[in-house]
Amino acid sequence: MIYLVRHGETAFNRERRLQGHVDSELTELGVRQAQAVARLLADLTRGEPGWRVISSPLARARRTAEFVAQAVGAEVEEDRRLIELSWGEWDGRLRRELEAAYPEAFGRSGWAFDAPTGETYEQVCARMADWLASLPPEPERRVIAVSHGVAGRVLRGVYADLGRDRTVDQDVPQDAVYRLQDGRIGRIDCEPLG
User: Fold this and answer.
1) Residue 16 lies in a domain
2) Residue 154, in any domain of the structure
3) How far apart are CA 166 and CA 124, in angstroms?
4) Which of 8, 15, 141, 145 could form a disulfide with 34 if both were Cys (CB 3.0 to 4.6 A apart)?
5) Residue 7 annotated among the catalytic residues of the structure
6) Is 80 exceeded by the pLDDT of residue 182?
């Protein structure tokens, strides 16, 4: 089984700035989201030993993973294959500025993969498939993965063999956990944050 988590809200998320490989700190809400996800995962794993926490190396994911690891009694491992999509020249840019400059790029499903010098859908799929293939088979698999919005969508799509349109149309909450088990995806929401 894999529990998949997106990092908590960041300053760039709040500004609607594309992060990609550029980092930004968790906001106060983002810290609370990471703590809520950690509590939920502690309940879901019920203190059972053998859970691995594997994180993207970007600080926003790593910080979220540290809350999770502490809650489940594990160490954080990093794996670069879980890193967010590279937006290339668009990394760190405000979405509203890009929408004004490239309106045709933002109207289609899968627009994230059209950024100049950015990663393609196929490249992200390949690294997610490679990461999945490196894990023990089900049912021995006991992994909590901490990743990102686009990368998490693609990981779920590759795992469940979804087509491109279904993959990119998935939700990317920062206050929920996805259970990937037996080729199926289930969403488990955290308690509401006031």
Assistant:
1) yes
2) yes
3) 15
4) 8
5) yes
6) yes
* Predicted local distance difference test score (pLDDT) of residue 108: 63
Tell me the whole-structure pTM to 2 decimals.
0.95
Provide, for the chain, the percentages of residues in helix, strand and coil under a 3-state DSSP scheme, each rounded to the nearest 5. 45, 15, 40
Q: For 74-111, how does the pLDDT look when each residue is reduced to its tens digit (9 = 90+)?
A: 999 999 999 999 999 999 999 999 989 888 777 666 67
Cα–Cα distance for residue pair 139/21, rounded to 1 Å: 33
Inside any domain, residue 194: no
Q: How far apart are CA 152 and CA 146, in angstroms?
A: 9
Catalytic residue among 7, 9, 119, 148: 7
Q: If you search the block for the tokens 């693609």, which residue do you land on?
A: 154
* pLDDT for residue 194 is more than 70: no
In terms of DSSP bridges, do strands 2-6 and 176-181 run parallel, antiparallel, or are they unpaired? Answer: antiparallel
- The answer to the question of residue 87 being in a domain is yes
- Count how many domains the chain has: 1
CA-based nearest residue to 82, from 6, 25, 142, 27: 6
CA distances, 69 to each of 6, 41, 148 (Å):
14, 9, 17
Q: Which of the four pLDDT bands, split at 50, 70 and 90, describes residue 115?
A: confident
